[in-house]
Amino acid sequence: MADLLFELGIEEIPAPAVAGIRDQLRELFLARLAQDHVAHGGIECAATNRRLLIHVLGMPEKTASKEETVLGPAKRIALDERGLPTVALKKFCEFQGVKLTDVVEIETPKGKYLGITKVGGGRDAAELLTAAIPAILAALTFPKTMVWNESRVPFIRPLKNILALFGNRPLNVEYAGVRSGNRSPGHLLLSDAFFEVNSFKDYFEGLGRNFIILREEERKSKILAEIREIEEELECRVPCAGEMLDYYLYSNEYPVVFSGSFDAKYLALPTEIITAFMTHEKKLLPVYDGAGKLTNHFVGVANIPDENRKVSRGNEKVVQAAFEDAQFFWDQDRKEDFYALKGLLKNVMFQKELGTYFEKVERLAALVDFVINETRQDAMRSQLHKAAFHCKNDLLTKMVREFPSLQGIMGGLYLQAAGEDPLVWKAIYGHYKPKGLAEEKLDDLGAGILSIADRMDNIAGFVGKGIKISSSKDPYGIRRDANAIIKIIIDFQLPLDLAPLIRMAALHFAKNDADLEQNCKTIRELLAARLENYLKDYRKLRYDVVNAVMGQDTMAVVDKYLKAQAVATLVETGMAEPLAALHRRLKNICGENERCNFSEDALKEKEEKILFDVFKESKPRIDGLILKKNFTQASSEILEMKPIIDAFFEKIHVMDKNVTLRKNRIALLQRIDELLSAVADFSLLVETKPGGKT
Amino acid sequence: MSVQNVILKLQEFWAERGCVIASGYDIEVGAGTMSPDTFFRVLGKKPWQVAYWQPSRRPDDGRYGQNPNRVQKHNQFQVILKPVPADGQLLFLDSLIYLGVDIRIHDIKFDDDNWASPSLGAWGVGWQVMCDGLEISQFTYFQQAGGIELNPNSLEITYGIERLAGFLDNKSSLYELDWGNRVSYAQLRLEEERQFSVYNFELADIDMLRSLFQQYQKEAEKLLDRSLYLPAYDYVLKCSHAFNILDARKAISVAERTALMGIMRNLAARIAQKYVQQTEGEDHG
């Protein structure tokens, strides 16, 4: 048994790409080992921005040998009447590289075949690995590649070193012009360029000696523990998670947390600006006091110990200079007439083929108007119009040109500073939110409405332009826009049917009527898919519960959400089971028939008359409940009809020979089915008991 | 360390490592990359090692001499190593040590930052080099120039001279820097920053610059037809500077921007092709 130690030394991989490459490498190794039938005791992997490690545990020196049978053609095809080999058999031998004399007869359940037996496996693991490694490296994919040497092999950044030891013996591999050797790169700043590695022991000792913390978890706990120390020391709060934590994790081999401070006068700048400058530009963390107020401290992570406080002093100067710039942008921008910037949007392209931002904001005003009508928010009309017209002006401010991530926010802040109505500036401030489903509900309905309009226009534009998205490709963030629309509508419970809004947005980008229909359909499907995703993955509703409400071809998002909640409740309370049974029974009969006409006069038997009387009496009440979106109550009232319906099924032969009677009975059942279907398609529930798979 | 000492030391360091110490180009450029000593020499097969100090003009970065870090003309120290050396990062760190940076107590990071110059049809992959959070250099593996795939590739190291001097001298405003022999950066450059900011942002004649752009373009085309790619390239640089001033004047609309960039990119591509044709011809002859 032997372990493989495989390490790639690479010049600084961009932090966001590191983990993905590490995982790919692991998957590729696992797949290749399986393909080569190399048994092993698992794979460990680890990565920094300068090295990727794969450690395969417990491999046999030779793979297990086993006899295997390779079937050739059937005997009657392989040999002619005279018992001589046919072309089929000769080809088989040629392909397998064996002589005719190696062929034996093999009995199978399908009859007699000719074939060969050969001994597979028993291969030298070191040889297999030597062959596998270049193939594995060639199979890696990167977000962006480059070439740098004569090999012209594309990689994410120059590959500098390959260390490959199998059972402490070096493997001889070469990739991208780099030959493997017995060395590993040291820390960029704190150690020699390379340290020698002749065994696993050497490797792990060498890492320690050379200031390299290989394991992500160790680096992470070091960072978080040191941040906690600072929190205690300064009695403050320093949130560190998500992108920033990942950045630190994959930008330092020996992370050391440091802190610093800046002139408190800059705290007069809006908080949003301070935090954006610190995080996006300087990769530093803002520090908050006990009350959650921003302080004039910051925290960062260096790749070396900062015993002389050189790193923190240096960063202090940089932060100070950045805030000086921010102050300049903030002061200069406020000197300009913010409203007048709208005219200049004629010079700013929204997207190639999709016109300028000036045209976009004109469209947004119309879309906002439509949403206001639908959602009956007339009181906001004039303010939201104004917000729509000016929501992109900040793209022309110095601040947003420098910090695109502040778009929207800056427009809001500049108008707030100019004394604008809060309804206007808040709508602009928040209209790029929410960024994700997990974000909190927007504070401001106006921002929500403007955000819906803006995002719907984005989606319609990109779909109109023919941009296709797939699970891995969504360069314009269409999916994110669609998610946000769904989230806003549900968060604010907006009575908004998306179908007409989609049509209105798509009108601007369609080349002709057929194109328009196609685009509307694409957008409806996209939004329906995002709603489905929202309900299943974010709201954690069971898949069959979601399926039960997704079928109906309407884009009334809130209705579908409430219906899904109602069905989930019905499942919890045990009412879903009889409803599902009822609905399946109704569907069985109604399903294949066209909608039939109903006539009260054609009712003959007692049970069908009773059923109709009950239906007639309940329907207006149930319709009313559905209209009030009380779907649980509506369903339970339908359920109350079940004994009557059961009695009907027991006594009445629906498929009567008499066409009139038959069609009339089907028509009655269809009316009940329609009532039930107005809530959900309960027949799609797979599991009617609580729990089950999500 | 004074600004001039930074320049002198970098010249010494790179001369000792085999670089030609060239002069910065004498036409306005936005970056050292635009000098013919980079643009042409990274094309084709011939090895090339050069280092030069290049004053670089970015009209839009002017701050009327009031910002401690931003100026419409800053100084770059440009190094081109072709083909890419095996130990470029270490060479670069050595140059910092030579300047007196103790890399064991300063947090030097290679932070993902790719470079592209759409108007020259050029792009590369690399990093901005941060020192205690301050960007002091760009470190780029060139992939393409004038729309031509580069083989061999070149390594470009661009030092921000003011940034380095400010770091080494522990100054928080570049105007406080000692240029050399007790002449301050402010004495040497402040008035220039003031005047050019006023000119670039407020007074540059838009119609004149538009018409100049067209004339430069015509001249470049004429020269290209005669295969005089070197003077043709000068006129592309002149186009580029006129464009940058127009941009600082906010005089360029979207459609115009796309069109003007396209004109420059096209010219740069044709110039690069001429150069390659001629030099590859020499290789065979």
Task: Describe the fold and architecture.
The complex is a heterodimer of chains A (694) and B (285). Chain A is of the alpha+beta class and 694 residues long. Chain A has five domains: 2-62 and 124-209; 66-120, no CATH class; 216-335, no CATH class; 340-539; 572-684, Isoleucyl-tRNA Synthetase, Domain 1 (Orthogonal Bundle), CATH 1.10.730. Chain A contains 26 helices and 15 strands. A five-stranded antiparallel sheet of chain A has the order 2-3-1-7-8, with helices on one face. Chain B is an alpha+beta fold. Helices cover 45% and strands 23% of the residues of chain B. Chain B has helices at 3-16, 36-39, 88-99, 161-169, 185-203, 206-225, 229-248, 254-284; strands at residues 20-22, 48-57, 73-82, 108-112, 115-117, 122-131, 134-145, 148-149, 155-160, 178-180, 183-184. In chain B, the strands form two sheets. In chain B, strands 1, 2, 3, 4, 5, 6, 7, 8 and 9 form a nine-stranded mixed sheet that branches. Chain B has a two-stranded antiparallel sheet with strand order 10-11. In chain B, strand 6 (122-131) and strand 7 form a beta hairpin. In chain B, helix 6 (206-225) packs antiparallel against helix 7 (229-248). The longest helix of chain B is centred in the C-terminal third of the chain and has 31 residues, at 254-284. Chain B is globular, with a radius of gyration of 19 Å. Chain B starts with a helix and ends with a helix.
| N-C termini distance of chain A | 43 Å
CATH class of the largest domain in chain B: Alpha Beta
Poorly predicted sequence stretches spanning 5 or more consecutive residues of chain B: none
What oligomeric state is this? heterodimer
The major β-sheet of chain A equals:
5 strands, antiparallel
Supply the helix-strand structural class of chain B. Answer: alpha+beta
CATH-level-4 superfamily name of the largest domain in chain B: Bira Bifunctional Protein, Domain 2
Percent helix of chain B, as a range, is 40-55%
Largest sheet of chain B: 9 strands, mixed
Q: Compute the number of strand runs of chain B.
A: 11
Strand content of chain B: 15-25%
Q: Which blocks of ≥5 consecutive residues of chain A have pLDDT under 50?
A: none
CATH architecture heading of the largest domain in chain B: 2-Layer Sandwich
Q: Number of folding domains of chain B? A: 2
Shape of chain A: flat
Q: What strand order characterises the main sheet of chain A? A: 2-3-1-7-8
Proportion of helical residues of chain A: 40-55%
